[in-house]
User: What shape does this take?
Amino acid sequence: MPSFDFPTLVWWGLPLVAAPVLIHLINLLRHKRVQFAALEFLLTSQRKYRTRVLLKQVLLLLLRTLAVFGLVLALAQPRWTSGLAGLLGGGQARHVVLLDDSYSTSDRSAAGRGRAADEDAGAGPLGDTTPFDRGRAAVERIAADLAALPTASTLAVARYSKLASGTAAATARCDVPPQPVTPQAVPGIRDELGKMSPSALDTGPLEPLRAVEELLGVDRDTPRVLWLVSDFRGRDWQAPAETATLLRRLVDAGVALRFVDCGPYEGTGTEAGNLTIERLEAVGGVPARGVLVPMEVTVRNDGDRPVRELPVTLREDGVARPGLQIAEIPPGGQATARFETRFDAAGGHVIEATLPADAVADDNARTAVVDIVDHADVLLIDGDPRGGGRAGDAFYVAAALAPGAGAPTGLRPRIEPPRSLATLDLNSFDSIWVLDVERLDQPEITALEAYARGGGGVVFFTGPRTRAENVNTLFHRGGEGLFPVPLAGPVDLPPPPAAGGVPDITAGEHPVVAVLAGQRNPLLDAVRIERVMAVPRGHEPPAEEGLRRLLSLRTGAALSVERPFGAGLVAVVLTTAAPAWNNWARGNPSWVVVMLELESHLARGRRRVRSLAVGDPLAVRLEPGSDEIDVDFTLPSATVVRQTASATPDGGLEARLPAASAAGSYVAGWHAVDGTPRRRFFAVNVNPAEGRLARVGREQLARGLGGVGFVYERADALEPRTGTGAGTSLVRPLLAALLAVLAAEQLLAFLAGYHPAAKSPASPRPPSGPRRPAGRSTSMA
Assistant: This one.
């Protein structure tokens, strides 16, 4: 509907429209009698062309009137608003705007730039606006349009991140609480929008929609409108079953849905070509002082073209180190690069990986924390009641895990009898090795299962003391126990074929034995297996158990398998560790390699430092009586936030930072009662899935929402064109029309006027003579 920036000028200027009519009437009153002879011809011509002349004069008068009227309208600055009054019937309504501020709205790719808005702002064909910038402009336009309505409506504005977090009332989580929208309120709303910026979160529409009903209210007599201003990324809207349910409930309650798309103008594909660091973590090894720790970084390419020779910048504890270069990442695929690092001091250390700048900045960096220890303890349970000495299983395993000072592994094996399982703190060990144990008592089994269920790694070696019936009854228990497979008893491996050349063991597709997999391996060829514990013939575990084979015999039977147990892993080697049933540990280098890889694989659950996501809380457990209760959290911005620990239900103490608001490394620092400083590092990263910039359009939204009615608009149709008021300015088209009217008026005035013909220079001057008397007189205006 039309409105005016200066409506007073309309009322003061409208009387001027009558000026051309008054001038015409005044001219009609000015008569002058002229004596003129031989007028009969002129009077006859006037009667013949009177209608045509009168029509020209009326048209000329109308054009002059329109010119004055157009000038008055131009001075009043007319504009066309976006039809909110038509939607709401011109009455008062309750509006709620949900503004998407997930980090994908910071997209600065060429496909995501706002051409029309930037050109109006003088930024050239490609500016630097983001979907969030366009979303803010659209919200500003909505507020200004509402303020221009005849009756005041109420408006509330909330960002996704604020409405989805916290437990306070929805009204308290709004950036602009519900309030009447008047011309006086618009500047304050505009100022509040100017303070907003995209968050580092991946918040979708689901959680905000759950909280929005409180803002809309339940009064069906008052029109209610919900605006969703978003870039509509595919990961949130391609299969929005629960979102569709919530929206359908709102529509059924009488709420009108308005979707404002502030995403890229070029379409809904992956034009941006965004790169994302999906993963940065330690992969195996022992995070001990002076030991090489292998790390991996994985980068995803969401573009439609391959990326080649991609540099990855690395930093350790804030200091630059040699970076990496990934040769190629296929379109829509990912690539992983490995590097190694070594730390000479125990404690937490921070590794950072960074990509060159691209469409979205937040997912170009990732942080990992590596907790370095002086050594990692490994518990070896020796099943030999007399102690095996240098010929027992424990000796050969310990020698493989800790060969000596010449080859530091960071591991410290500790050999104990079976009864220690019930007395030791098993959580202080990175892995537990149970070596040819005849039986365990129930407290020992319970402690071992609790350790594995909590994320620990356990490996069993069998041998002459292993009793199949004890294993099946106590450890396996029909698949519910710790032992991965049932046992049938010891068997001798049949002699090799007469032709020879077939190794006794082969490596499967498993990371523990990956170094030995492939074609014929001379190290495995030298291994001879004489006796093994057999699995019952025809045993087929259910697929959901996740049983996985590491090593196989030449007969096709399993030699080593693993199975998840709770959060941990349990493996079994169906032969001896000592060279009693085989010769593997007797001078074969592959023995040491496989044992170290097996230990690293089993202990990964306890050594992995979990990466937190932006928005997650940070918690530090304190020892009552040993630690002070104040903890200082240092944020990536170097800001320090002090939190006081509170009691937990289990009688402990915990200091908690409610939510990490930005990605990066956080440090929690506190003191023991004796003054000893303590620190703990946290790695906080964005959710890499938000970096997938593929979008959905109107048609995909309609299909995904299954018939939920909504009005879809582009944000560029709502962006304000000037800084004064709402709607699209009509000044330019009005001035163009005014110029056309003035041009038509000049042309018609020329056609309707009298223009004497120019005298030819060669024509003779008429002869002079006495003036003839006038035949008659007339009067002309």
Summary: The mean pLDDT is 84. Residues 612-685 form a domain with the Immunoglobulin-like fold (CATH 2.60.40.1220).
